[in-house]
Amino acid sequence: MDEKELAIRCGRGDNVARKMLYERYAGQLMAICLRYFTDQESAKDTLHDAFLRIFRTIDSFEYRGNGSLKAWLSKVTHSIIIKQLRENSQNMEIPVDNWDLLDADVEEERVNEIPQRVLMQFIQELPKQKRLVFNLYAFGELSHKEIGEILGISERGSSSELSRARLLLMNKIKQYKEKKNQ
Prior knowledge:
Helix content is 71%, strand content 0%. It has helices at residues 3-11, 15-36, 40-57, 68-88, 108-112, 116-124, 128-138, 144-151, 155-180. Helix 1 (3-11) crosses helix 2 (15-36), helix 2 packs across helix 4 (68-88) and helix 8 crosses helix 9.
């Protein structure tokens, strides 16, 4: 069944189509959730909330060609993640960093040599605030102003956290490459 028909049938409440939609896209949407939440339970809860909204609002989906359903599902999932981050921003720890900036002398082409699963693990290992800013900026495509509003930090603070996240990632990549070349 193609994605257009799948969306139409889901919009009509067809449980077979809903199951098929879940089985086809749950893994990809879970990967999005895991970019933001390091623990499996939070990611699973977010995925569950995303599918609840997806099934409740799929009749508003407009098919725009191959891949548009996946894009819409990803957008809904990001929306749920952002909502949860906003709700939890008051309880979020924002540590004061007193560490020296790390060397980020890594060429861009060296990044392309790193397996994607390794890069995603490096992102997961970032401190929470830096990981959230990095993901919202790189994957959520939000501005620093929007990120600041979601996380309850200043626009400048968001920019600073992104710079530090990038430096940490570049250092991890450099160490990975050096270790691999030994």
